[in-house]
Please model this.
Amino acid sequence: MFRRFLPTEFNFFDLFERMGVLAVEAAACLRKIAEDGGVDENALSRMRQIEHKADDTTHAVIEQLNKTFITPFDREDIHRLASEMDDIIDMMTTITNRLRVYQISEANPMLVSFAKLIEESVHAVLCAVRGMRERKHARSVSDFCVEVNRLENVGDEMRDSALAELFRREKDPIAVIKWKDIYQDAETVLDICEDVAHVIDTILVKQA
Amino acid sequence: MFRRFLPTEFNFFDLFERMGVLAVEAAACLRKIAEDGGVDENALSRMRQIEHKADDTTHAVIEQLNKTFITPFDREDIHRLASEMDDIIDMMTTITNRLRVYQISEANPMLVSFAKLIEESVHAVLCAVRGMRERKHARSVSDFCVEVNRLENVGDEMRDSALAELFRREKDPIAVIKWKDIYQDAETVLDICEDVAHVIDTILVKQA
Amino acid sequence: MFRRFLPTEFNFFDLFERMGVLAVEAAACLRKIAEDGGVDENALSRMRQIEHKADDTTHAVIEQLNKTFITPFDREDIHRLASEMDDIIDMMTTITNRLRVYQISEANPMLVSFAKLIEESVHAVLCAVRGMRERKHARSVSDFCVEVNRLENVGDEMRDSALAELFRREKDPIAVIKWKDIYQDAETVLDICEDVAHVIDTILVKQA
Model:
C-alpha cells in the first residue's frame, strides 16, 4: 500500500527523514487548527492524510527490516524509532480529533503556544534524524536531542501554568473537562518527542 | 492454584483457547450488565470469577513456559499473547468496577452497543487463537485478525460519536465525567483486542 | 552529575538500596504534604530534590551497566528494576505537582490514608532490595514482595471507596475532577510498587 507514494529504492535513513517531515507537516497543520479555533473538514482530512502516510512509512520500515540482513544499527532500535516517530503523529491526530469531538470553536492562545512549541520540537527531531546519516554529525545530532529534552521541560511548565490558570479562572466544569484533556494531550506530544530523542541518544552511544 | 480447574495435561493452544473462551464469557457478562443498567452482586462476583480464572490461566502459561524447552512459537510471543489476552479481561473487569463505583443505575443504549461490539471482537479473537493450532488454517486466522482490526475502527467511531453526543446533550458535568470514562474504557477493550490480533499476525508472519 | 553525591565506589545493590531509601523519603514527604493539606515551597523543593537524586541514581545504574561485563543478574532486569524504582518516585512528584496545580489547600483524610499506605509499600520495597544482596535471604525477599502485592490490593479498594464516596457526597464538579485524578494517581504509586516487586520476583525465580 505504501508503494503508492514511496519510491521503490529507499533506505532506513530516507524513511526516518520522511517520518520527520510528516511530523513537521502535522505540527504546522495543528498550529493552523489552533489559530483558526476549530477543526474544519479540510484540516481534518489533511491531518488524516498525514497520519495514513506515517502509518505506511512505519510499515515500510518494518517490511524493510524483515528483508534486510545488515542494518545501520540495532534492529530493535530501528523498530522503536519508527514506531515512536509514528506515535508523535498519532498523538497530534488524537488532539485534532478531540477538538472536533469536544466541539471547540474558539481560538485558545494557550493551545497556539503549545502548537508552536510542538513545531519547534518536531523540527529538532527532524534535524536529529537527518544528522544520523553520517557519524561525523554525531555532535550536532546530540545537540538536537538536548534541545528536544529542553522543550519537553518547557512543555511541562506550560501545561502546569495552563492547568493552574484553567482551575483558577474557568467556572464552567464542562470547559474544565475539555481543556484539561487538550492541554495534557499537547504536553504528551512533547513527551513522545523526548522518547524519540532518547532512542536516538541510545543509538549514538552504541555507535560511539 | 490454577490446578483447581485446569486439567493436568494441557498445552499452549489449550491455554490460549481457554483465555479466549473466558474473554467471550466476560463480554457476555458485560453486555448483560449494560442491558440491566447496573452492576448487582451476582454480576460483580461472576466477573471477578472470570478474572481470577484468566489470571490463573496466564500464570499456567508462564509456568508452562518455564518448564518447556520446545515451544510452538517464540517464547516472547507466547508471553505477550497470554498477557494481552489477560488484559482484555482485566479491562472488562475495570469497566464493571467503574459502573459500580460511579453508581450507574440506568441502562445506556450506547454502552449496550459497545458491549455488543466487544462481544463480536472477542469472538473473532477466540476464532483466531483456535485456528492457530494448525498451519493450514493460517489464512482464516489472518481473516479473523483483519476482522478484529475492523471492529477497532468501528469502536473508534462509536466512541467519538458517543462523546460528541455526550458533550452536546448532557448538561450535568458529573454525568459527563462518568460517561466519558466509561466510553473510553469500552473503546480500550477493542484496542487491546487489536493488540492481540497484532501479536497473532506477527506469529503467523514468522511461521510463513 | 551524580558524582556530586555518589561515592566513587559502588555496586548495583548499593544503587538499588539508594533508590529504595529515596522512595521512602519521598513517601514521608508526601504524607507530610497530605497532612498539611497543601504544597508549600519547602515541600515542593524537597520533593524535587529527591526526584533529581533518583534520576541521577538511575543514570548511575545505566552508566555502570554499560561499563560492567559481569552483572549480579540479567542486564535487562537491572535496567527494568532501576527504571521502575525511578517511576515510583516520579509518580509521587506528579501527585505533589498536581496538588499544587489544582490549588488544593485543605487536608484530606483519604489522601493521608493513601500516603500512609504508600509509605508501607515503599518500605517493603526497600526491605526487598536490601535482601537481594544475599541468596540466603531469598525467602524474606519473597515475603516482602507478597506484602507489596497485598498493599496494592488494599490500595485498589481504598481508591474504589474513595471514588464512590466522592461521587456520592461531592456536589461541586470541579472538586470531583480534582480528587478523582489525585486518588487515581495515589493508587498508581502502589501499582508501580507492585511492578517492582514483580521484577524482583522474576530475578529470584531465575536465580533459584
Remarks:
- Residues 9-207 of chain B form a domain with the Methane Monooxygenase Hydroxylase; Chain G, domain 1 fold (CATH 1.20.58.220).
- The interface with chain C takes residues 66, 97, 100-103, 173-174, 177-178 of chain B (CB under 8 Å).
